[in-house]
Write a structure and sequence with these properties.
- The complex is a heterodimer.
- By secondary structure, chain A is an alpha+beta fold.
- Chain A folds into two domains: about 5-235, 3-Layer(aba) Sandwich (Rossmann fold); about 240-345, OB fold (Dihydrolipoamide Acetyltransferase, E2P) (Beta Barrel).
- Chain A contains nine helices and 20 strands.
- In chain A, a hairpin with a 2-residue loop joins β17 and β18 (about 310-320).
- By secondary structure, chain B is mostly helical.
- Chain B contains twelve helices and no strands.
- Classes of the chains: A alpha+beta, B mainly alpha.
- The interface of A and B includes residues 75 and 88 of A.
- Chain A: InterPro entries: AAA+_ATPase, ABC_SmlMolc_Importer, ABC_transporter-like_ATP-bd, ABC_transporter-like_CS, Mo/tungstate-bd_C_term_dom, P-loop_NTPase, Transp-assoc_OB_typ2.
- Chain A: It comes from Chelatococcus daeguensis.
């Protein structure tokens, strides 16, 4: 039994279903991400939990209580908006104190809790500033402090890091996780950034066209994607079209894998493999021959595009301090048979 | 930022000069010691300003105008803010009609409105009533307030209101603590423009004022039809000074660009 539950929740806008029949159970203290491309219904789902959008059908429960029709100001959930939605005419401290004021918390206790919360997000020295005097990362932390100070049962984050630059975003991911751990609040975050979802969540919910297509721990999502869409959306993935025949899967005439597949001989299959599961071998060795088409150095690793009979294949090579094969060099590719996933069908990826 | 070329700068300078020249001239003429509308050349005098205050009917008319403009602007704000919220936030039958209705006084000539009100007030026996005069002014200044309120609302980040709601604020508290302060520049700008328009209004007021409720522009008009002397220039200079002070105050508090051009 989940702490926060969605049962058959749908939202229809003028005949168009933004969210279709969604079921989700979030445990107390859990950090769950809703991941998907724009327009997949993830923000609508979050707004329904917050009470800002009324579901067309279904039931939303919080700690055993039905909150489906409850007004947002009665739910007591903490919400951090994509634009941060700070009150521009109030100082940082006044922004954070707002929720406590609404709860008629006495002045002394209010001041104490605001100070505590600002210390938690490392903003104690900026309490008297106005939002326009803060940087993006600081505003973001004010928004988090304002949402958390009311000690909400659930914290809802709508693309909280999307307005920050890359370096700050990474810092804030750690920061967000640290704050969430120390407060222990059940958190649901909406994001379109798969790396962000994978790095900070306990579980990731992938949404496609209004449906939840996979709910899993980050590493399981990465290793065992449930749909072709998830395969390509989460992490980098090589997709090879082939035919299931005698002795295994043949791609462009080369037998690549003998992984058993529950399909008849001669049917089209798709093979999937992650770039980091491929290994470079000298020319003539390995399972597949190819030629390095391009090479990117990314610090921790190299990303090579290798032209093969089966098409262009991305290969990730860890940086060991030595240069891997140069552009134009012929090489061989190898992998553990278990890392190649084979499924029936042409694998129409999104 | 694009730089203006010399021709454009010259053109801007000419436009500004064209707009300001009459105001500058009338203010200078107000200081003449002569009995005719001439530019003071040798000496400056405050005699015509003194003359204004020696005319009690002008002082009364000034008081009337001040009250009228203050009350009319305040009432129009009280109407335009809820109307603006409804028009901006909701899609309801008659929304466009309501928007059109609120803006129609801008389109109808004040002369026509004046005749219409004169007839209406005569019919209902309201001739000479200050309250009905206020009402007629509310009608002509509300469109200005509504425009500015709508502009302020369209630039408003609605998520701030949603945030306030999720923090436990009721709808009214959201309006009082978040929405109203955020659109305050638009509201005060609207109030001031309504005030100035009401204070200035002549064409319609000629028809709907009575000797007891005569406004300053009407009093000036009546005086000017009989004789033109530099006292008119002195009254004009006072009105210009009042308006300029009000605009200056508004600019200092909120910034005029922000109110009239929109949130930056």
């Amino acid at each position: 039994m989940g702490f926060l539950t969605l049962e058959g929740v749908s939202k229809v806008y003028g005949g168009l279903a933004a969210v279709r029949d969604v079921d989700l159970a979030v445990a107390r203290g859990e950090f769950v991400s809703l991941l998907g491309p724009s327009g997949c219904g993830k923000t609508t789902t979050l707004q329904m939990i917050a009470g800002l959008v009324e579901p067309t059908a279904g039931r939303i429960g919080l700690d055993g209580r039905d909150i489906t029709r409850e007004k947002p100001n009665r739910r007591g959930l903490g919400v951090v908006f994509q634009s941060y939605a700070l009150f521009p005419h109030m100082t940082v401290a006044e922004n954070v104190a707002f929720g406590l004021e609404m709860r008629k918390v006495p002045r002394a206790e209010r001041d104490r809790r605001v100070a505590e919360m600002l210390a938690l997000v490392h903003l104690a020295n900026l309490a008297e500033r106005y939002p326009r005097q803060l940087s993006g990362g600081q505003r973001q932390r004010v928004a988090i402090a304002r949402a958390l100070v009311i000690a909400p049962p659930v914290l809802l984050l709508d693309e909280p890091l999307s307005n920050l630059d890359a370096k700050l975003r990474e810092e804030m991911q750690f920061e967000l996780r640290r704050i969430q751990r120390s407060v222990g609040t059940t958190t649901i975050m909406v994001t379109h950034d798969q790396a962000e979802a994978l790095s900070i969540s306990d579980r990731v919910v992938v949404m496609e066209a209004g449906r939840m297509t996979q709910i899993d721990a980050p590493y399981r999502l990465y290793e065992q994607p449930a749909t072709a869409f998830i395969s390509t959306f989460v992490g980098k993935m090589n997709r090879l079209a082939g035919v299931w025949g005698d002795g295994g899967v043949a791609v462009a005439g080369t037998v690549l894998a003998s992984a058993p597949a529950d399909v008849a001989a001669g049917t089209a299959v798709t093979a999937w493999i992650r770039p980091e599961k491929l290994h470079l071998r000298p020319m003539g060795e390995g399972r597949l021959a190819g030629r390095v088409a391009s090479r990117f150095f990314l610090g921790g690793h190299w990303l090579l595009t290798v032209g093969t009979e089966a098409g262009d294949i991305l290969v990730s090579v860890p940086n060991t301090g030595e240069e891997p094969a140069r552009e134009g060099e012929p090489i061989g590719l190898d992998w553990e048979p278990a890392s190649l996933r084979v499924e029936a069908g042409a694998g129409a990826a999104a | 930022m694009q730089k203006n070329g010399p021709v454009a700068l010259l053109f801007h300078a000419l436009v500004v000069a064209f707009v300001l020249a009459p105001l500058v001239v009338i203010c200078l003429v107000a200081f003449t010691p002569e009995n005719t509308l001439t530019m003071p050349t040798t000496a400056f005098s405050l005699r015509w300003f003194r003359a204004v205050f020696e005319h009690p009917d002008f002082v009364t008319a000034f008081g009337n105008s001040l009250w009228l403009a203050t009350i009319a602007a305040s009432i129009s704000v009280a109407i335009a803010v809820p109307a603006g919220l409804a028009i901006d936030r909701y899609r309801f039958p008659g929304r466009d009609a309501l928007n059109g209705l609120f803006l129609s006084p801008l389109i109808i000539p004040h002369l026509v409105l004046g005749v219409a009100f004169l007839r209406l007030f005569a019919l209902i026996g309201a001739t000479g009533s200050f309250a009905w005069l206020v009402l007629s002014h509310v009608i002509i200044v509300t469109p200005y307030v509504l425009r500015l309120v709508l502009a302020a609302l369209s630039g408003l980040d609605r998520s701030a209101e949603q945030a306030a709601m999720t923090l436990g604020a009721s709808r009214f508290t959201v309006f009082r603590r978040v929405t109203a302060p955020m659109i305050l520049p638009g509201i005060s700008g609207g109030w001031l423009i309504a005030f100035i328009n009401s204070f200035d209004e002549l064409t319609m007021s000629i028809f709907v004022t009575s000797p007891a409720t005569v406004t300053l522009p009407v009093r000036m008009y009546m005086y000017a039809t009989e004789s033109i002397d530099p006292m008119m220039a002195a009254v004009s200079a006072l009105m210009i000074a009042l308006t300029a002070l009000a605009m200056l105050a508004l600019d200092r508090v909120f910034g005029l660009d922000k109110i009239l051009v929109g949130e930056k």
